[in-house]
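User: I'm preparing a small set of examples for a lab meeting where we compare how different chains pack in three dimensions. I only have the primary sequence for this one, and I'd like the structure in token form so I can line it up with the others. Please keep the answer compact; I'll paste it straight into my notes.
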Amino acid sequence: MADPMRIRAQVAGDKATVRVLMSHEMETGQRKDSAGKVIPAWHIQDVTAQHNGKTVMTAQWGPAVSKNPFMQFVVKGAKAGDKISVSWVDNRGDKRTDEATVS
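Assistant: Understood. Below is the structure token output for the 103-residue chain.
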């Protein structure tokens, strides 16, 4: 399983800005190793964010997203103490879910 995501969620007024740093190699499937063999594709395909259990954002990614991707989005109506969870699934079926509390 991949390393934990770093999630920060900070309230400003009636919105929370959520910043997520994901740890993933994000291989495109187009590079070759030192022996000249193609390195198989390995990248995050689906990302979902939830605010107190309700889905607030979904994304479908492909091989063009960089290694260890960073994502930022805003959640309206969030308050300090609310829970934000972010999940991803990659093309190998690996999954990761992490949670943070809005501050």
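A couple of notes for your slides: The chain is about 0% helix and 50% strand. The mean pLDDT is 95.

User: Perfect, thanks.
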